[in-house]
Amino acid sequence: MKVLWITAHPEPRSLNGSLHREGVGYLEEEGHEIRTSDLYAMRFNPVVTPADFSHTEDTRLIVGHAGQEAVREGTLAPDITAEHEKLSWADTLIVQFPLWWYGMPAILKGWFDRVFVGGFAFGVRDAQGRQLRYGEGALAGKRAMVIVSAGAREASLGPRGINGELNDLLFPLQHGTLWYAGIDVLPPLLVHGADRMDAVGYAFHANALRSRLKDLPYADPLPFRHQNGGDYDDDLVLRPGLDPHLTGNAAHYRVES
After folding, report:
1. Do the Cβ atoms of 151 and 196 come closer than 8 Å?
2. Which InterPro entries does the UniProt entry name for this protein (predicted)?
3. Reduced to 3 states, what is the DSSP secondary structure of residue 186?
4. SS3 for 183?
5. In this structure, which of 2, 76, 106, 141 has its CB flanked by the most CB atoms within 10 Å?
6. d(CA 175, CA 80)
7. 69 near 93, Cβ under 8 Å?
8. Burial class (CB in 10 A: 0-12, 13-18, 19+), 209
9. Model confidence over 149-207: pLDDT tens digits?
């Protein structure tokens, strides 16, 4: 595999930092190629500005259009272009972060805002003019796995847990960002009890990480529905005959009969 490991934690001596080094070391031992985007170490700028697109103040900035134009003309900011080169090289992405207020750290959200621009991560059409997204598109053929740490107990991030089910919390990232761009998304790895981790707990999670990395090339992805697979009508609403008892996030997973 060619793996791009994106990590977002401000403290290299943290649990996240240790597991990152553990995982990278394991993949290297297994003969895989690794590149890393350690966003805090890079001091990555998470804020979208006109300078990202070499945009002048003469006209109003329309971010989506400006991104596509800058990709086409080769005028994106160098730090964005560097991340595009890594993404184009990789066949597998690992996105690792601590769960802060039910979401990604701002620096990682900003990475997606700036790097997943139109013309690179989306905005592709087929010969019939259909948008190629949600399972198709510019980054189709790549795989991704999210590694997320949380101070919460494992059960509290389950189907009836007070914090909400983990895949629901990650739906904007896994479905609305990665799958939107065509990337197959593997089930996430939860590192629970992060604030109370002892040596035994660390050994458990390090072993779980190695196991998931070993299976990375072969594991089945989350069964998200394809936009253009016939499940949605022209308004991109799930057809009424498909699992009519399901609503919300659950409706966008294929259910095996």
Report:
1. yes
2. Flavodoxin_fold, Flavoprotein-like_sf, NAD(P)H_dehydrogenase_qn
3. coil
4. coil
5. 76
6. 23
7. no
8. buried
9. 998 888 998 999 999 999 999 999 999 999 999 999 999 999 998 888 899 989 999 99
Domain extents for the chain? 2-224, 225-257
Q: Which CATH superfamily is domain 2-224 in?
A: Flavodoxin domain (3.40.50.360)
> Of 204, 172, 175, nearest to 189 (Cα)?
204
If one counts every other C-beta atom within 10 angstroms of the C-beta of residue 17, the result is 18
* Cα–Cα distance for residue pair 2/86, rounded to 1 Å: 10
Q: Using an 8 Å Cβ cutoff, are 34 and 3 in contact?
A: yes
- Quote the tokens at residue 15: 């649990």
Terminal alpha carbon distance of the chain: 33
Could you tell me if 12 and 41 are in contact, meaning their C-beta atoms sit under 8 angstroms apart?
A: yes
Which residues partner with 98 through β-bridges?
Answer: 149
Burial zone of 137 (CB within 10 Å; 0-12 exposed, 13-18 middle, 19+ buried): buried
Indicate whether this model's pTM tops 0.90.
yes
